[in-house]
Please model this.
Amino acid sequence: MAKKEGSAMTVAEAGRIGGRLVSEKYGSAFYEKIGKKGGSSTAEKYGPEFFGKIGRKGGKAVTEKYGSGHFERIGRKGGQKVAELIERAKSLDSTERAG
Model:
């Protein structure tokens, strides 16, 4: 975002600084709390089926952008990562038992 002549910072820069200050002051739990509050308000206002509707809309946009195999690829990648983590935990557990 370009700076306007005579302005000290862009809106994006101001937002980033403000977000960092809020994070330092209130911590990550603050964002979790306001996120849950916003989600509850949205569900109350639009109904729980609203989330399904926006999820489908987002999924469609992702499919259009990355192709129909995208979710399959990221699912496989996630499954492989979980399997690696399980194996690593098992090896750590057996090392602790031996030592």
